[in-house]
């Protein structure tokens, strides 16, 4: 049981920034942003390529985040002032990103096993310290994200998702908000990609497949479970954060748990798919309104 | 005294329609006027208001606001000058945000003169929302939503307040209350307003001047002085 | 109602999940078998062949009971990560991930158990931190050029088609250098996308006496285009993997997947007998095979006998893949 919890914890930890990013796009901006599949790989790829070239991991990490943000800004730009569906724009960007990632990485797979990373020092000392340092970086991102949610910018992003036309009539620069929102969520996805690459020891061109889906599934699941109990709306940002954590953790808890039954993995994926479908079905799109 | 707002030869067409939605409209609004726009459904009332808040753009003619072509205003400047309320709450408020969040979004513009207490401020609009500041606007009743929208609209009084049948979706009693409230607020705060309605009694009671549209053209203009000796029936006959 | 159903299903699932790991073997007196974890990243016949070679050889050679735990990740990286954690939790004695990416992941996650990476190409430096041994399935361009020279001693002009992939550049240089030593001028042609193949195929130098393709995913995926040109010009199309031969290349010098498993099993055996994994040099494949497609060879006007003769001389097994079902590539 301890092993199961540890496996869940370590796996969830690396994907928490991604979950926050999806929370931003799916819950605040009300858009299914498929760019995330690509910017996850972009973050991993840029980071891996830069540290392999001998650039300091901290700088590489920051550059990786910026590249994710640029990818998001591009998706926002493709939406052409709200005239193109964000889903379509995101699919298009992640399509383009496949080539971009390949060009950035130069090969389909860059390994980081013997390259210094943000966490390699700590992991060399002890596994506990290693995971502690990962938790620290993720924690910083979570705190920054929470502050953002509570800020005026966070409010504007939420208002943007609710009613961009009204926001525009109130004199806000909607284009700026769209770019900011999509940049931020892809920045978080890129952060997740870069962190994941350091944990699994490589960046791979195919590592982002299905990330958006898992993320949305987890978020919907988490929100479905906890938002009905949150009656105070000033707690909304905090509870959304909590929902993202719980959703991601539950996903990996179930995944790791089911593995223990020696279920044929083909059925395992089916089971997980059915599970996600079930939650997507029972949860109405906007939980807080149900 | 120069007029606040002038429509000059305004024509608005839609490619799918043969006759123009608005056809050569000329009209002048003075500061402090409450102009009621009457006309059958489809006569172009809403379109006329949408030209002002930037949702539509005229094919011909120009709109002058305080001696400036309205098109030369930045969208931000325009948003400060013109505020619209319609019958549908989702055009007026962010339904998935709370009352205080809706307030914060409006309040951003002039940080200096923030009000002391939102609850007290709302009290003046005959709605008791003091305990609901943290409730999603979607959960409020239609009457509460429209009163809140009005309160937020005049927090920083716009040059022109556009009210497009803003009472139509309410039950008669609530509509009556909201209309009276609106008229009082407009009067007290000297707000210039363009108001559309199908209620001729409201038009007579609250409008300073009446503009009647028919099939996109100005059908009749009733000035302050003419209004005195009109009954609702006469107005009905003149305008529809 | 719906919500209650959701909660119920979730709670029962969690309960099931939590008690799912109580399947320890009650059989105490039997010697505990050696636990070997095999990680298969994606469903593919080649992966199954490697697994079969590994399992069969190890079972035959090792005189102890072995239990293989085969984990199939279905191309899902998250699932693969969970599976490695799961193996770790089971106290696996030796890990055998197949292909480079799973080997990297295993090496990053497992430090206290030996790992034999099958068909994995990783720099030596990566082996330092974990107990990692490698079976490298890539054969060198030099081996291929020498084989070609042996079959066609009079050929002096070859065209090498490759893609703009970082991995290819050093191999292309090696092929050119190897060509020089045997008097073959290797003319290199790069593609950046699949459609380039067509224009390159149309504009081949008339002097060229053969087309060479290395293990290059992009080019191999468009091998049919090159196959047509080779047939028109009656020159051989030579490659370095069996899949491309199935799809129209004349012949290839490469390795049989089963053999990779065999070599891996030998390494695993050494490790289980006490040799530290990190001290075992990376195994290169020496037992090579020549894959042939007789239909394509005939269309390209090539003589099978000459190929068979050289293969026999070098002790390479001939594998005819002419009518085998066409699978996609690794
Ligand atoms: N965006 C539009 N597309 C097509 N027709 C429109 C559009 N806006 C207005 N119209 C047409 O213009 C006419 C006037 O509409 P409107 O201004 O909404 O009338 P009112 O508010 O007086 O009922 C109607 O015939 C309507 O169908
Ligand atoms: Mg109307």
Protein described:
The complex is a heterotrimer of chains A (290), B (240) and C (330). Helices cover 76% and strands 2% of the residues of chain A. With 290 residues, chain A is mainly α. Chain A has one domain: Orthogonal Bundle (ABC transporter involved in vitamin B12 uptake, BtuC), CATH 1.10.3470. In chain A, helix 3 packs across helix 9. The longest helix of chain A is centred in the first third of the chain and has 27 residues. Chain A is globular and about 55 Å long. The two termini of chain A are 35 Å apart. Chain B has 240 residues and is α/β, with parallel strands linked by helices. Chain B has one domain: 3-Layer(aba) Sandwich (Rossmann fold). In chain B, 35% of the residues lie in helices and 23% in strands. The longest helix of chain B is centred in the C-terminal third of the chain and has 17 residues. With 330 residues, chain C is α/β, with parallel strands linked by helices. Chain C folds into 2 domains: 132 residues, Rossmann fold (3-Layer(aba) Sandwich), CATH 3.40.50.2300; 148 residues, Rossmann fold, CATH 3.40.50.2300. Chains in contact: A-B, A-C. At the A-C interface, helix 1, helix 10, helix 11 and helix 12 of A face helix 1, helix 3 and helix 4 of C.
Number of domains of chain C: 2
Q: Catalogue the unreliable spans of chain A.
A: 285-290
- The multimeric state of the shown protein is heterotrimer
Overall morphology of chain A: globular
- Treating each run of at least 4 consecutive H or I residues as one helix, how many helices of chain C? 13
Keywords:
heterotrimer; B: 240 residues; alpha/beta; Rossmann fold; six-stranded mixed β-sheet; four-stranded antiparallel β-sheet; 10 helices; 23% strand; globular; C: 330 residues; 2 domains; seven-stranded mixed β-sheet; three-stranded parallel β-sheet; 13 helices; binds adenosine-5'-diphosphate; binds magnesium ion
